[in-house]
């Protein structure tokens, strides 16, 4: 009997393991989305009463604040020898040390913000962008993003049961998650690593080196020159589609792909082929668990939405209270309609709100006709444009 008892107790002992306490819901709050699914949060800084606008971004290796916001709020900054890289350039950064961020129902202390210039982002979205929330926030919590309800749920670290009907990604994680994905073009497929960047309002961003080495576009493939915004200013890119992109078990057809010259080596090619943006990721409700290096995806009601890119070939930005046309793609609906650079957009379809997101949405309905009132050389001009796919 003693021997039986000894074997039985040893068997039990071998099955013991430490189990984390369950993750606890700390708070939840709504968010707003910009074009491409980019997430805007409201938060307060330190003891200031006014709310600021922050973009939630897995593509940020820390947390940052806009330089003009720093000046306006008289936030102390210190110089550093650190640099940050983006598609528009490399720059040295200053820091605002030991600050507190107040999200609804949540206080996040001891944050060191790096200082950046977000004028281009503010002009693109039509709202002042005060900062970007990245790794410094995600590493402290489990974050659930529900695009069906436009709500974020923040949990303490701990064990969590992921919902059924989804897929668990296990990205490589230093400060920005890196995930395998597969690009299919013609009859050839290539698997590569990509940043997961929910702060990028596009589907795919591919380096020209990756495209040149790994993707063979057919002679009839339509590839357009466009202008895009990035760290350091605007950048020239190309826009096309790939036949298919696969993320885990999920396949997407005819996915818009921006192609850029990686002059500042942000992808460290051939380590990375590019990045996956939020116009793909917004099609899932996502749980981000940096402690476990988990990202859990469940397809949501946006899974089969049309991809969000310019169907008009018209590019406009918000400057000093006016919406200004900055670029017109050759052979696009915008060029056919007669738009000119420096036209001031006053209304679209009798909507005089000057809301950038509303106007961009009106230009996503392929097959529709939109009437655009512009001011040109001080005189009103009414233009009619038929929206259609440009790629």
Description:
This protein has 391 residues and is mostly beta strands. Helix content is 14%, strand content 45%. It has helices at 2-14, 67-73, 119-125, 135-138, 208-214, 278-281, 333-337, 356-362, and strands spanning 25-30, 32-33, 39-45, 52-56, 63-66, 83-86, 89-92, 95-103, 106-116, 131-133, 142-146, 151-155, 167-169, 172-173, 177-185, 188-196, 204-207, 224-230, 233-247, 250-260, 274-276, 284-289, 294-299, 314-319, 322-328, 344-348, 369-376, 379-386. A six-stranded antiparallel beta sheet has the order 1-12-11-22-23-13, with no helix packed on it. Strands 3-4-10-5-9-8 form a six-stranded mixed β-barrel. It starts with a helix and ends in a 5-residue tail after the last strand. Mean pLDDT is 90; it is low at 1-13.
